[in-house]
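Here is the promised in-class demo. Please do not try to memorize the tokens; focus on the logic of going from shape to residues.
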């Protein structure tokens, strides 16, 4: 009579190990939950927000202008940043008179709260990189900063897809 109980414990242990392994693999390769720290993406994201980041998004596709991405800072790969894609490889990016221009056209940016201060010379985004900026333009360390610069695609962790915290402000990002 003892044998069935032992088999039941083995089955439970196998189920738990399988579930843990599956959760580990999903978090490693498919998605991650990221904490927003700081105000560089205000008003779109606030410090303390939690996001689901899809890691596979750019394994099978390319970033698009307007995507919110998480990436390893090229100057310090232990630090992750969250920014908005402004330019993709081959685009010409320029900032003048408080506006951001991509390929000669001023961006319509409903996600920013104030005009962009400062200038950025007309520059072509190199191959296999992206140009990113925070939505809180005047308080963001982004591609305009020499310590960040253009983001190599190998540094991009994934695309922010869903804000899951706070629960009263859940949002799916396109």
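The designed amino acids, position by position:
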């Amino acid at each position: 009579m003892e044998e069935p109980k032992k088999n039941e414990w083995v089955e439970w242990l196998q189920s738990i190990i399988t579930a843990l392994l599956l959760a580990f693999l999903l978090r490693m390769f498919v998605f991650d939950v990221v904490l927003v720290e700081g105000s560089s993406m205000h008003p779109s994201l606030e410090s303390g927000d939690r996001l689901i980041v899809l890691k596979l998004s750019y394994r099978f596709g390319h970033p698009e202008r307007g995507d919110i991405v998480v990436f390893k800072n090229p100057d310090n790969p232990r630090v992750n940043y969250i920014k908005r894609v402004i330019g993709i490889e081959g685009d010409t990016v320029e900032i003048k008179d408080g506006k951001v221009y991509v390929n000669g056209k001023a961006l319509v940016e409903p996600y920013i709260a104030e005009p962009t201060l400062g200038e950025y010379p007309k520059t072509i985004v190199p191959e296999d990189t992206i140009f990113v900026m925070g939505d809180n333009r005047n308080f963001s360390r982004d591609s305009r900063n020499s310590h960040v610069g253009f983001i190599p695609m190998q540094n991009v962790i994934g695309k922010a897809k869903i804000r899951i915290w706070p629960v009263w402000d859940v949002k799916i990002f396109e």
